[in-house]
Amino acid sequence: MKKQRFPLLSARQDWISVEIFTLFLAMSVYAVMVWRHESGKTEEAMEAVLVTMRHVSAAILPMTVWILGIFEIIGEIMIRFTSLMEKMRAEGKAEGRAETIAQFRQYFAWEKRRAEAAANNQPFDEPPPPKPEGYPEE
């Protein structure tokens, strides 16, 4: 099933809130780092605020692109991996089902030969095949 996409940079809709939170967190950490660096250089708080705002506003676009890109790449890898795992699981179930059907057919063919030999009073010394998994015990 294809996920709905959000128009902003074609991001997946269910990841937008996580991406926005991550962007907010990254920008907050960056702002604190710049503030601490700039506040040690000057005595005026307003100058430190202006420099911090200038740095943070310049970093918003690159950080947004990086965060969206990372989420989209990792998300696409996860989606493809999940799809591959589901495909392998379905193939494994089909293969297991085919093997079980073959085992049942082999066992029923042996039962039929044994019943025919008993009906004709003929000796039957063929060893039984292993009982298929799920076959009811006698």
Describe this structure as you would to a colleague.
- The structure is a single chain.
- By secondary structure, this protein is an all-alpha fold.
- It has a domain at 5-98.
- The protein contains two helices and two strands.
- It has a two-stranded antiparallel sheet with strand order 1-2.
- A hairpin with a 4-residue loop joins strand 1 (5-6) and strand 2.
- Helix 1 runs antiparallel to helix 2 (45-119).
- The longest helix has 75 residues, at 45-119.
- It is rod-shaped, with a radius of gyration of 34 Å.
Helix content: over 70%
Question: Helix count, per DSSP?
Answer: 2
Hey, roughly how much beta strand do the residues contain? under 5%
What is the CA–CA distance across the termini? 46 Å
Mean pLDDT: 84
Please tell me what the overall shape is: rod-shaped
Topology:
Elements: E1 5-6, E2 11-12, H1 16-39, H2 45-119
Antiparallel strand pairs: 1-2
Helix pairs in contact: 1-2
